[in-house]
Amino acid sequence: MASLQLVAWRAAPATRLPLRAAARRAVWQPSPARGARGSDLRPLARVAAKADEGDAPLVEGASEGVALDSADAEEVLECVRSALGLPSGTTLAGSAALSAATPFCCVEGDGTYMGLHSRWRLQVRHDGAFHSETVTVGQGLHYQQGYDGASSGGAREAAARVAGVAAAEAPPFYAHVAADAAGGGLEAGGETEGGEAGVTSIGADFGADPDATPGAAWTVENGLASLIELDDREDALLSMWMRTGAWLLPHVRPRLRVSVEPVDRASASSDDDGPRMPEGVRAVVSAQLRGGKVVAKLLLGAAHLPLQLRMQMWGAHEVYEFSDWRAPSDGGCRFPARVAHHPASGGTDTYVATRAGASAVSNKLFAMPDVRACAGDTEYVDGAPRVVRGRRTPGGHVLVRALLDGRDCGEWLLDTGCSGLVVSKATADKLRMETFGKLSITSVGGSHQSQMRRCSTLQIGPVVQRAPLFLEIHDAIDVVDGAHGANAPAGIIGWDFFRRAAVELPAAGDAGAVDLQILPPNDPYLDTLPQRHAARLRLVGRVPHIEASVEAHGVSARTLFMLDSGARGTDLIFHSSSDAGGAMLRALGDRTSRMVVRGLTKAARVQARSGVLDRVELGGVSADEAMAVFLQNNDKAVETSVFSGGMICSGLLGRFRVLLNYAQGVAWFLPDGDAAEGDGEGDGEGAAPVAA
């Protein structure tokens, strides 16, 4: 029986009333304006001062609501509007005073996040635009998230800012952002015509309506602004709109598909191991973005006020509980003064509102900030070697040495499937790294309680990151072949470093020393790489994804794959829910064999089947005879995007030199020995199109 080593690190999603971070780890970087360890809360203090001048304080007295006498969906929605203190749907739609830019609500307060005292603020406009900000007291962790609510051009302009060019000059791999930033499906759909003769093609499903949910959603961490897409975007919009009541507004409602389900304990959960239905639920409202895939379920109580919000993300349930509903004394929509978030991996974060109102704010607050390819907390050392000596293990893992606070701390695993930085407890204790917070991390085998560790600097090659934050893993990182116990890696290098550098992973070869390039993300060398080998890189949950085509025995499919250099022992992994994987498995027929996927711990086991695909195409290159693993059951811990069919693993990545530039959203898949273009090769006639 075969055994597959698989690393799929993800931390519990960050929570912000009730927005989750566009990441699978609960880490917020320090704000440059506050310093690495400052506790300056002036942005929130300014809001409080403004509230003293005009905003109304909280008052008791939420309405008991209207009795629910009909199962008709519109009647239910009218009951919810009444319970929240909103005018009827007809009155709202006909109100000339409620322009798209009119402030809808502004709420702020205190809470606990990762076990730390925090202060938060959110503001929403009538067109659904929002801005959310959270600062942890004493640690200076600062996070912002927003949505501009703009026309469809906003997404393309935002993507162009990511690329660092004018909108009209955006490179090809940003050309389709405006069309699919709304969350277009990428998993395999029905059969389509075209393709090679004799090949049945299962085409990618780009089913989203680009005009239904226009505009750009974004995050800012430590000065790093990022456009968020797919699951992250749908999660951000749905959770904020459902949390605040904005989903009922006339400018927002057309962007959603809303239905009312009968009260059934199974209806509020997508599977048997979902959270239990609370007592007193009268109806369940389900909402999706038009053309989207993420489903939000709002559980309504007897007074028709929301009791819970449930969303299934990355194969896990996230639950938000609402209580202590109040209304500003100057009128406006009621809101829950207390919100508790229960991540699927465990723990609870709380948010308690202290002030509310409808403050007028500048529309610039909702616009996506300009993106800088080079992070403000990162130094690129002139003259430092850009070629770094690493080590390849027999199983294909790539290890590099890193300096923490100037000290050589041993080897670290380069893992694109890791959504943060991970450090072993032994290494962190040896360096006496700062310790704070509480959180959970998720990997194959389940969830594990952890905490944050922080040092002064992390350096690999010419890239020096200041005040990096690490997730601590208590046990030795026992996932690298030939490196166990005292020889285990000191940690794992994931999103934080990849976002601040352009990193080239070497093509596979014999185990031993390897050279890899580490460059600033705006290095001129990147402009010389052949565009025919470039693919658009999507960051979902802080891990990279690209589109690829697979083919087996006359059947082909195209889907989105996560790039996971830490998963070894195979070329691809398909989730059990993947349409593309199902098509390949059926095409292979009895030409598969049983196997087991092993994860973080020896006890972690996932049943699977394996087979050999005829061909995989990605980034303008192709690979023949690719080994594929098809997960059969119990694979939630390794689920990725709902738009994804699975993972591309170290086996397939090792067939090329792979250069990843997270900052500008592009990956190059270079056949070994294929150098920079120099003379513009690849831009002329016959060049393969860039994947979009």
Automatic annotation (TrEMBL):
Gene3D superfamilies: Acid Proteases. Pfam families: Asp_protease_2. InterPro entries: Peptidase_aspartic_dom_sf. This is Peptidase A2 domain-containing protein. It comes from Prasinoderma singulare.
